[in-house]
Amino acid sequence: MPEEMVTALKDRDFTGKIIRPFVTHEGSGLANIPKEIKEVCKGATVLDGLEVKGSTVNSARNRVEDWI
Ligand SMILES: Cc1cc2nc3c(=O)[nH]c(=O)nc-3n(C[C@H](O)[C@H](O)[C@H](O)COP(=O)(O)O)c2cc1C
Distance, CA 23 to ligand 1 centroid (Å)? Predict the structure, then answer.
């Protein structure tokens, strides 16, 4: 996860919040982002994320809608 995201999210209270990670990438998928979010966003419930490869984004509408 980009350090900017860690800086923006750490030290906040996520008690009672639900986070669903969404990432674009060019091959790394979700990598270890769900694990990092669980560590950084204290109190949050982290549900399944969705990864979309940037080069396939134009055909990803159905996957995104299903996930939402
Ligand atoms: C500095 C930088 C490094 C990145 N490194 C990776 C990487 O190692 N693996 C990967 O799958 N995506 C990486 N990405 C993300 C993809 O480049 C990007 O999400 C994807 O091409 C989709 O384009 P978008 O960012 O416009 O949505 C990186 C992005 C940036 C800005």
Answer: 9
pTM of the model: 0.86
Inter-residue contact 26 to 56 (CB < 8 Å): no
By CB atoms closer than 10 A (0-12, 13-18, 19+), residue 21 is middle
The boundaries of the domain holding residue 55 are: 3-67
Number of separate domains in the chain: 1
- Ligand 1 residue neighbourhood (C-beta within 6 Å): 24-28, 54
Q: What is the pLDDT of residues 27-48, one digit of tens each?
A: 999 999 999 999 999 999 999 9
**Angle at alpha carbon of residue 14, lines to 42 and 52, rounded to 5°:** 90
